[in-house]
Amino acid sequence: MNRKMIVSCAALAALSGAASAQLSENFDGYTAGSTIAGQGGWEVWYSGGTDATVSTAQAHSGANSLFIVPGSDIVHRFAITGGKWTLTAWVYSPSTAFGDAYFICMNQYEIPADNWSVQVKFDNTLLVVESQFDDAQLPIVLDQWVELRVEVNLDCDQHDIYYNGQLLASNLDWTGNVSTNGTQTIACYDLYNAAHDGLYYDDVSLQPGLRGCCPGDLTGSSDPNDPAYGVRDGLVDAADFFYFLDQFVAQNFAVADLTGSSDPNDPLYGVPDGFVDAADFFYYLDLFVQGCV
Ligand SMILES: [Ca+2]
Ligand SMILES: [Ca+2]
Ligand SMILES: [Ca+2]
Fold it and tell me: 288's torsion region: left (phi>0), alpha (psi -120 to 50) or beta?
């Protein structure tokens, strides 16, 4: 192979590497009833935890899913150091169950330390799904498969979380929303059951994503009947402004409580304060003018 060919192949490999799925797991290739650790790159949390079982009781795809019981702490490692990514997990939580289980994504795992970026709680006792520790909540959906999706742009240290197609939390720091002083990396998934009577995961993936660094981008449409309403489109335009106005008027804190101050020199600038008021409006105008970076 001549040098030019080698360079071309290297370039292609780099391109395909940047754009390829890191995980696309449907649990359908495993024997029903088998434990997952040791299969498909899954393992039990390094310092201890309980395994989980491949189940046919529920499935989002094919015949199988993963059933996690109290103590299950199931990890899949990655080594991602930047870029745009979409994290997806389908979850089935039976209405007969009580207690809490979690979808976790770490930016560092085991080496050199543990640092959490995403921790979403499925709480069958309080009947909520909660993004920790920004405290955003939505009602939990029981007895059906529900998509949890995290869209992250590691390069600008931001992510959004969607549950059941609804925005749960947006413009969260990757390095600071759960733990502090994290890194702009993806080190592992952790499917953890603290005390939930039993919950199913299926179609767990980590795919190349599209999330831009556009904090003013909230929607692809200003029409509430358009499927693009509330779904980012990578552009900051009039639709975003009118969408924000809708959420502002509706006092939707998840979207419209952006700040405690409209003064960039105030420590409360960019820190939600539990009120949707004029400061939030002027703060959004700042984001809108900023566009995409
Ligand atoms: Ca499946
Ligand atoms: Ca937009
Ligand atoms: Ca506010």
Answer: alpha
Write the pLDDT tens digit of every residue in 124-181.
Answer: 999 999 999 989 999 999 999 999 999 999 998 999 999 999 999 988 989 999 999 9
**Cα 273 to ligand 3 centre (Å):** 5
- Looking at the CA of 230, name the nearest ligand: 2
Ligand number nearest to the C-alpha of 261: 3
Structure tokens at 25: 């797991």
Read off the pLDDT of residues 33-88 as tens digits, 9 standing for 90 and up.
Answer: 999 999 999 999 999 999 999 999 999 999 999 999 999 999 999 999 999 999 99
Ligand nearest to the CA of 61: 1
Q: Is the Cβ–Cβ distance between 145 and 114 less than 8 Å?
A: no
Q: Scan for tokens 């994503």, then name that residue.
A: 209
Q: Burial, 132: exposed, middle or buried (Cβ in 10 Å; 0-12, 13-18, 19+)?
A: middle
Q: 93 with 102: CB under 8 angstroms?
A: no
Q: Amino acid identity of 277?
A: D
> Quick one: how far is CA 180 from the chain centroid?
17
CA of 245 to the centre of ligand 3 (A): 14
Range 19-208 classified under CATH 3.20.20.70 = no
C-alpha angle with apex 70: 107 to 173, nearest 5 degrees? Answer: 25
CB 60 within 8 A of CB 202: yes
Q: 27 C-alpha vs ligand 1 centroid, how far in Å?
A: 5
List pLDDT tens digits, range 167-219. 999 889 899 999 999 999 999 999 999 999 999 999 999 999 988 888 899 99
- Tell how far the Cα of 60 is from the centroid of ligand 1, in angstroms: 5
- Measured CA to CA in angstroms, residue 130 lies from 63, 95, 124 at distances of 29, 17, 11
